[in-house]
Amino acid sequence: MVCADLPGYGRSGKPTPTPDHWAHSKTAGARRLVTAMHELGHDRFAVVGHDRGSYYALRMALDHLDCVTRVALLDCLPISEHLDRADARFATAWWHWFFFAQPHLPERVITADPGAWYRGDPDSMGVENYDEWRAAINDPEVVRGMLEDYRAGLTVDADHERADRAAGRRVRQPLLVLWSLQDDLEELYGDPLAIWQDWADNVTGHGIDSGHHVAEQAPDALAREVGGFLVTASQ
């Protein structure tokens, strides 16, 4: 199993930001992640992604059909689906998407007191994980990288997804989608599975009785669902 920091996050390489945000696009990031898997000796592998990671997993499935065998996406809809359905409820609940997309201001706000902004908890995270997290959020380059991920999402990534739809490109691999019933995905959009059926040839999935951090709050249910869908070499 390979668990990667996303490009720009944690200890990963930090792409140099570009005015069009291409360097932090999911297309560019998926290419880096596939290259990393190849360098680790895995030519074909399955992918699981949660939240921001799910957008990279989706891009890997769409752009690297010969490499990605199966996909699991957790708490995810395509970015363009969110934006095309955006209303006051979405803007209120997901306001950070639009704040993070602003130039310069988010960096000034967050780096003034990263701990207060991100609010990590050493008791729930564990001391080692907390120390790793704290080092990351106090690195201005990591903060910039995370913000550029969101900036790319609202611009180049959404454009790429709409171009995919216009061209009839779909997820061809078996796709599993899971979502947290205690989060707001169903409240905002109804049945997420119905939306994914417009994006994939072979999709299954359902909600899980957990909060947004499904891997922490419902690990047994998650393990039953995504066994074999991890970032690893296919058997």
UniProtKB/TrEMBL annotation:
Keywords: Hydrolase. Signal peptide: none annotated. GO terms for molecular function: hydrolase activity. InterPro entries: AB_hydrolase_1 (IPR000073), AB_hydrolase_fold (IPR029058). Residues 1-24 are annotated as: Disordered. Residues 2-224 form the AB hydrolase-1 domain. It holds the Pfam family Abhydrolase_6. The keyword Ligase does not apply. The keyword Hydrolase applies. It comes from the Bacteria. This is Alpha/beta hydrolase.
